[in-house]
Design a protein that fits this description.
InterPro entries: ATPase_gene1, ATPase_put. The chain is mainly alpha-helical and 113 residues long. It is 77% helix and 0% strand.
Length: 113
């Protein structure tokens, strides 16, 4: 008698399928907790970044005007302090954007696991 070969069977769903289902379930739960980001959220973030640049710029200009008015010297301070405020504001906005980008990428990596 010849040995019979077992019939070809479809591969059984193993841990890979279970891990995919688990990751998808975690993504859905996280999305429910976070809520959806809509147009107003995006506009609010643009406003936040705008104010983080505008406020230090205006503070620098106001401080420069005050120095020019009450402590006049050889150099005008208004433009210099306004540019310094702008640089500080841009640095703050850049730092905030990098932080948010990192948080989004960390969330995406968690979703892939």
């Amino acid at each position: 008698m010849t040995a019979r070969k077992p019939p070809d069977q479809a591969p059984k769903p193993g841990p890979a399928l279970a891990e995919q289902v688990d990751a998808q379930a975690r993504r859905k739960l996280r999305a429910r907790r976070r809520g959806s980001a809509n147009v107003w959220f995006g506009l609010g973030m643009m406003g936040l970044i705008g104010w983080s640049v505008a406020v230090p710029t205006l503070v620098g200009a106001a401080l420069g005007l005050w120095l020019d008015k009450y402590h006049a010297g050889r150099h005008a301070w208004t433009l210099a302090l306004m540019v310094a405020g702008l640089a500080i504001g841009c640095f703050n906005a850049w730092r905030w954007i990098v932080k948010e980008d990192k948080a989004m990428h960390d969330d995406a990596e968690d979703d892939d696991e």
